[in-house]
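Service request form, structural biology core

Requester: graduate student, group of Dr. S.
Request type: structure prediction, single chain
Budget code: on file
Notes: please return the result as structure tokens.

Sequence provided:
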Amino acid sequence: MSSEQPLFFLHSGEHPTLPHAELRAILEAEGFRFRTREELAQLTRIWCSPACAPRVVARAAMTRACCLELFSCPASEDAIMSSAAGAELARYLRPGQSFRVRVKRVRGYGRELNTLRLERELGAIIYRAAEGVKVNLERPDVDFLGVVTEGRFFFGLKLSELTKPGFSERRPSKKPFFHPTAMMPKLARCMVNLSRARPGELVLDPFCGTGSIVVEAALIGCRAVGADLSTRMAFGALLNARFLGIEPHGILVADALRPPLRPDRVDRVVADPPYGRSATTAGLGVAEIYERFLALLPELLPEGHMACLAAPSDLGIEKMASDIGLRLVEAHFIYVHGGLTRELVVLQVP
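Core staff response, request fulfilled:
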């Protein structure tokens, strides 16, 4: 395969913008050159080396699969069959190999299409055209995937797929130390990825709580350091990490506003500072915590490096960061419950 190929990524549906942003961030962190072609509901199309597929799927919280795009067309049965017949799909199979075809619709698009019939008909086209192949619906040698979204159909050769992500096994309720403020592992992983963290880099969570961010950073190969003002929380974070077989680079009992770290020794900062009723703020107002912590980022991070922070959406964190001279890379809003919407911001030290 040449260096750049047309690829598409199938995402999970938790959020409209985060999966696309997480994909871009991973590609940047892993050093892949890419060009975004299109962002649709739960699907991103790019030009990139197929070598990116296993790295993206291994790291991502919100991506299910990566495919080499073979054809796209309007989401009608006639258009799909016509496009498939002209796509020379048999050339992706060798005699003796097995294959299967799966078709998924996202967010209810293409309800008029019978996905099971599409799978059978697409499979029949491939079977008739390829010599000496067989169908295997359980463990095929070659996997084809079709996706229906926004009135269109995309068909591809699956390069990599999320199989056992382990996020459900790492839910806060399944860890030995629990606190109501604990972050869900998928969001923690997404935030680490948005910071553009690279394997081997030092990632700091100065408000580590129960350690979700520390765990997810360590799992993608970073040197993860957590700190918390509470001895109990720091001990709980270490307990949770070791329960999952992870030895963090360090867990500190320390004030995030007076971190015992030398300037420019941290590569990325990923944090969810305290702001809820169950959080400990050491007597400081939420706005003061954020203002004082944001002011530390130019000292903690080298020039050009990024931090990903969560904050209440009504706090005005973007203005706070701008006033300090930090560059806003991107922002995303996550509805939590009636009175709380979170804002995730990615900030860069200029």
